Structures are given as structure tokens and as C-alpha cells.
Automatic annotation (TrEMBL):
<dbReference type="InterPro" id="IPR036523">
    <property type="entry name" value="SurE-like_sf"/>
</dbReference>
<dbReference type="InterPro" id="IPR030048">
    <property type="entry name" value="SurE"/>
</dbReference>
<dbReference type="GO" id="GO:0046872">
    <property type="term" value="F:metal ion binding"/>
</dbReference>
<dbReference type="InterPro" id="IPR002828">
    <property type="entry name" value="SurE-like_Pase/nucleotidase"/>
</dbReference>
<feature type="binding site">
    <location>
        <position position="11"/>
    </location>
    <ligand>
        <name>a divalent metal cation</name>
    </ligand>
</feature>
<keyword id="KW-0479">Metal-binding</keyword>
<comment type="similarity">
    <text>Belongs to the SurE nucleotidase family.</text>
</comment>
<keyword id="KW-0547">Nucleotide-binding</keyword>
<keyword id="KW-0378">Hydrolase</keyword>
<keyword id="KW-0963">Cytoplasm</keyword>
<dbReference type="Pfam" id="PF01975">
    <property type="entry name" value="SurE"/>
</dbReference>
<dbReference type="GO" id="GO:0008253">
    <property type="term" value="F:5'-nucleotidase activity"/>
</dbReference>
<dbReference type="GO" id="GO:0000166">
    <property type="term" value="F:nucleotide binding"/>
</dbReference>
<feature type="binding site">
    <location>
        <position position="42"/>
    </location>
    <ligand>
        <name>a divalent metal cation</name>
    </ligand>
</feature>
<protein>
    <recommendedName>
        <fullName>5'-nucleotidase SurE</fullName>
        <ecNumber>3.1.3.5</ecNumber>
    </recommendedName>
</protein>
<feature type="binding site">
    <location>
        <position position="90"/>
    </location>
    <ligand>
        <name>a divalent metal cation</name>
    </ligand>
</feature>
<feature type="binding site">
    <location>
        <position position="12"/>
    </location>
    <ligand>
        <name>a divalent metal cation</name>
    </ligand>
</feature>
């Protein structure tokens, strides 16, 4: 398929540096229209609103809603002729199977798949301590993410990859940008699968509060992740662009062994009122 029009969204908000970096990278080749949240809606998952407010923006449309709101509004009302949806670039990685459902960036790509529109979700790993998210990022630091996304929008669509997968989850290492604003040499690309490792922790303080933590970020900073080569998290820690080819969730499994249970249900409950 050929790509002419790109719907660009994110979960960091329409004025985020990562969205602007992707817009500038794609705008040279495509008609790019942003349909993105008015403000940060990170970790919104696939939350859908009943209705949303929409305002014109220099890049397209600012939506007072979630990333999924943006995709539904964009593909069904505002930009119905979009050929591809690109979500990102998220300021922070979306790595591991357990993050996919809670990520607004990835959820936007999943929603596009239900419209049968190819999608690329792009995120960037930003190393640092607990306050890494406060870092002011320059456009050149997104170079690995923008190069990879631009390449995949062109080549993955032309190769027919989206005949076999629904969306691509891309995670790129941050680029070392010099004072001239130019990114470093391109990071290599690796096809990956989401890491199955799960390490979320919960601590009850005894006073009516439970605090959550995810120790993987400290392990990533130390380069000591529990993931083998071929997983998304290992690729990013090794300085590679991770590309996970994925399909929409909730595929039915007809061989789960439930047929006999279903047939016996009536007998098991016949005396239950």
C-alpha cells in the first residue's frame, strides 16, 4: 500500500516535544495531521470518553480526551482517509508485555487496528533517576525514534508487513545530540517480542495507602535487565531500536478445553436457584 496521509497522536499532549519531532520528520513526505490530547494523558490505556471537545491547532486538532478518543474521532470523523496512524513519540519507553495495555501510546495503535488501519506506536527510553521525566528534551535527541518511524511507515507498508500484523510497537534509545543539533549515528534495528518479565511491587503503609513501584527502571539504568536477546527491553538497553510486530488483543482460543465444561454447566447448576 502507498501512504499519503498520516494521523499523528500521542498521550503526552499535542504540544509535547516528541510529537513535534515526529511531525517534523514525517511532514517532509506525507500529509500529517495531528489529532492529539490537549494535555498529558499518559497511562490512560484504552479509556474512551462519552464525548470530547475539539479545537483547531497549528498541527491539526487538539482533543480534550484520551489517545483512544483521538483515534476514534480522527479515523471516524476528522481524518477518515488516513492511511496510517502513528502514536508518539512517547517520552519514556513502553517495554514489556505488561505495559502494553496501560500505555496510552500503544493503546492508540491498538484502536487503529480495530479500524483496519496500520499503526506504529513509537516511544523513547530516557535514562535517569526517578525524576527523568522532568528532563527538557531537544528534538535531536529523538533522532533514533524519528528515523526508525519514518523508515517503517514507508517500508513496512510497502512490503506488506501489515497484511500479517496489526501494529508495530517501536522503542528507541535516546540519541546523543551535539550542540549543533544533529543526532548521532543511527542505532541498529532489531525485531523483538515484548518481555514477559513482570516485577510490579506493592507496599501497604498500614495507614490506608498502598504504594506501587516498578524495579525494572533501576535495572535498566544499571544495564542489568532480566531479559534475553530478542526481547524489547534487552534491545533498548543494548542501544538498539526495538520493533515488536503485534496483533490486537483478545484473540479467541478455541482449544482451551472449555467445551465439556460448558456442556456440563446445565447439569451442574440444575439445582441452583
Amino acid at each position: 500500500m502507498s501512504v499519503e496521509r498520516v494521523l499523528l497522536t500521542n498521550d503526552d499532549g499535542i504540544d509535547a516535544a516528541g510529537l513535534r519531532a515526529l511531525y517534523d520528520a514525517l511532514d517532509a513526505d506525507y500529509d500529517v495531521v495531528a489529532v492529539a490530547p490537549t494535555e498529558d494523558r499518559s497511562s490512560a490505556g484504552r479509556t474512551l470518553s462519552e464525548d470530547v471537545g475539539i479545537a483547531d491547532h497549528e498541527l491539526g486538532y487538539a482533543v480534550d480526551g484520551t489517545p483512544v478518543d483521538c483515534v476514534v474521532a480522527g479515523l471516524d470523523a476528522l481524518i477518515p482517509d488516513a492511511d496510517v496512524v502513528v502514536a508518539g513519540c512517547n517520552e519514556g519507553a513502553n517495554l514489556g508485555a505488561y505495559t502494553l495495555g496501560r500505555s496510552g501510546t500503544v493503546s492508540a495503535a491498538v484502536e487503529a487496528a480495530f479500524f483496519d488501519v496500520p499503526a506504529v506506536a513509537t516511544s523513547m527510553y530516557v535514562p535517569g533517576g526517578e525524576d527523568w521525566w522532568k528532563r527538557e528534551l531537544r528534538s535531536a535527541e529523538f533522532a533514533n525514534a524519528t528515523r526508525a518511524t519514518r523508515y517503517l511507515v514507508a517500508e513496512a507498508t510497502a512490503s506488506g508487513a501489515f497484511d500479517r500484523v496489526d501494529y508495530l510497537n517501536v522503542n528507541a534509545p535516546i540519541a546523543d545530540a551535539d550542540e549543533g543539533g544533529e543526532g548521532d549515528a543511527p542505532a541498529p534495528m532489531r525485531v523483538t517480542s515484548p518481555s514477559p518479565w513482570y516485577g510490579m511491587e506493592a507496599a501497604h503503609d498500614g495507614n490506608g495507602r498502598v504504594r506501587f513501584s516498578d524495579p525494572i527502571w533501576g535495572k535498566m539504568n544499571a544495564g542489568d535487565v532480566p531479559d534475553p536477546i530478542g526481547t524489547d527491553r534487552r534491545a533498548v538497553v543494548d542501544g538498539e531500536v526495538s520493533v515488536s510486530p503485534l496483533s490486537v488483543p483478545h484473540a479467541a482460543e478455541p482449544d482451551a478445553g472449555l467445551d465439556e465444561l460448558a456442556a456440563a454447566y446445565g447439569r451442574a447448576t440444575e439445582n441452583v436457584r
